[in-house]
Amino acid sequence: MSSDANAAAPGAQAPVDRMAGVEPVPGVAKPDAILKADGVRRSFGGLTAVDVDHLEVQRGTITALIGPNGAGKSTLFNLLTGFDRVDKGTWSFQGRAVNGLSGHKVARQGMVRTFQLTKALTRMTVLDNMLLAAPGQSGERFAGAFARPVWRRQESVNRERAMDLLRRFKLDAKRDDLAGSLSGGQRKLLEMARSLMVNPSMVMLDEPMAGVNPALVQSLLGHITSLRDEGMTVLFVEHDMDVIMGISDWIVVLAEGRVIAEGRPADIRSNTQVIDAYLGAHHDEPAGTEETS
Ligand SMILES: Nc1ncnc2c1ncn2[C@@H]1O[C@H](COP(=O)(O)OP(=O)(O)OP(=O)(O)O)[C@@H](O)[C@H]1O
Question: Which Pfam families does UniProt cross-reference here (predicted)?
Answer without folding.
Answer: ABC_tran, BCA_ABC_TP_C
